[in-house]
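Key idea: predict the complex, not the pieces.
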Amino acid sequence: MRAGPYGTTDLPVLLPFRPGARGAAEPAPGLGAAWGVALALVFALSAGIAEAQSDAGRPSTVATILKWTPLLAQGFALNILISFLAMAIGTAAGTVLGLCQISLLPPVRTGSWFMTQFFRNSPWLVLLFYCMLLLPFEVNVGGHIVPLPDWFKATVGLALPVMANVSELVRGAIRSIPFGQWEAADALAFSRRQILWMIILPQCVKRMTPPWMNLYAILTVATPLCSIVGVNEAMTLTGDALAAEARNELLVPMYAYLLLWFFLYCYPISRATVALEKRFAVK
Amino acid sequence: MSPAGHVTRTEAPLIHIADVHKSFGKVEVLKGVSLDVAKGEVICVIGPSGSGKSTLLRCINALVPIDRGSIVVDGQEVNDPRLDKLQLRRKVGMVFQQYNLFPHRTAIENVMMAPIHVLKQDRREVESRARRLIAKVRLEGKEDAYPGELSGGQQQRVAIARSLAMNPEIMLFDEVTAALDPETVKEVLVTIRELAEEGMTCAIVTHEMGFAREVADHVYFTDRGVIVEHGPPREFFAQAKDPRTRQFLSQIL
Amino acid sequence: MDLTPLWEWFRWLYGATGVKLTIFYDAFDRQRFFDGFLTSVRLQAACLVSSVVVGVVGAWLQGSRLKPVRLAVQGYIQFFRNTPPLVQLYFFYFALGYYLSYMTDEGLRVALVSNFAWAVICLSLYAGAFNVEIFRAGIEAVPKETIEAAEALGYSRLRAYVYILLPLAFRISLPALNNNLVNLVKTTTISYAIAVPEMLYVANQIWSDEVNVPEMMNVLLVIYVSLVGVVVWIMHKWERALRVPGYVS
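Result:
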């Protein structure tokens, strides 16, 4: 059995490892869902305890949390927006960078390799700070002053490591296509560009989809980092809500509530990734 | 080894190989190989694995660049930095041991791709030709199957049709039956024999001695990068002179 | 060795070009930045070791005959894999930390568990969740026949595990394990959020005091990339050294 596209890269990737690809003990579908329920129970239980602890005359914990839910949802929507945008930018840039890594021109190859390794080895939070503090607050595009809001700068900061990981995915996937495919296409007089776009890359897409989805899940759980640099996403707003309420018994249920939101969003993605992997492994 | 002198025809050979050397790193795979293939001729190259047979084929269509020597295909010097490789490869078709079909395209798409995208031919015209070729390799009804849904022998026949779709003047076959189940070997060999009978110039690397004897106009035996012995199949198989050839034949027959 | 000339060169650099690297020529900044660097390294080392321990224990528990145990491990993995590490950290530090603290007579709240310890606990559990799956996959990738062959040769089951299965499984796990550990080293920076005085946190203090954001950002990036690069390099060497020729998993 050949190693997966990311099993063959020479340096560790941020995450795209999938033990499941080798038939690991994957949970039965119901199992993780059961855990989601368990998490919801913890949340409910903690809310209940908080209820018992709270002084009489104050609104109940559940009511308080419900009160803040619309705001939280707003923040969460920003998390999702950031994750979509960062993924789109990172994937586009990463694909170009990955193709540069297999360029026939040594300087292009070395340069893109270096860039990939650099951004892959940088902590996400440091890159986030970097973009946040060093990108201008507005840019001049052809005479028009376009403001760069904080959340967009954060998106760029998150897109950088995504780019590096996609670059490595693309390179790994291309390398995993058997050499015979290149040879056969060569013998049929296809040009290098044609071979890449018509024969190699279409085959890579399938191999890259599961690790790419995995990367998306990782990106999504990284979006709360934006709260550290002052973007008003779900984590920041949860903190604001807690500060406004100033009730210590709310700490556990509120954080559990936020965790639950992310879990409900990410768990199906992770299930789908595993399912896709299994389907591709059979063919 | 002097250039093969068996070609008695007066016209220039379609493939002229003279004193070709090729090394991979420190390993010298071809140590001065010379042979000629006339138009319409079918040659078989046999020999133990690692004797450079496959490399020789790959040199003919410039998949592997040579270090020294000369290969002239239809008047075109292959060992020339200014060579138009794409031009050369339109003339020379190749079929591989591992079929190398494009797994994301159906059988007929595999056959149609290169004429449409490389030769820029009209899609409808290409499609009707592709259907004829699929029928020629006896795979009617399998046009829309993906390579993964076909047996090895069927895939290999699609690969032959794919090569033929480029209207090549020469076909190279690189151990095309080596990866096949014994029962499907025959269907592929039949297809190749038909091609040979139609007058296609073929260079065939094979382990199938019976097939070589039947189809070849001339048989070459290579060992450790040189041509040890060659001749018309009847003489070659009946009265090999070199002890290395005799030993090889006794092991394989 | 006296490094004063080097420090003075950086002072000169500031005067000549405006590149303000106080962490070299200012003794106070130098000291706190170096402490931050050491804290980062300590934090990373502690997390690496304990996450591997978590992974081993988890993989062992996952092979348990008791269904509730397996379920619990699976739940733990899914929870930590599918929620943000930063929110996990806040949950541990602020929410659980609140219950693990007491009030002194002077009315001061004293935490029983330090920031540093919370960071280690949370990050080890986070990376440990991935490690469990990695080790488990490694064990399952060893063909059953290998163990059967060992038993046929008279190995007891335990000995077959210790001498044959685990060494093979570990080698199979290593590339994925290394990926994950490198990821962990990068993720330790999030302990900034709970004021663990590691490099990022200290750098933030310095750029607030000295107003030299670009310089500090670049220094940080270079140091982190080199730190991670060193880890990657060591892991890679290790992987090479343990590779079994011809054994394709």
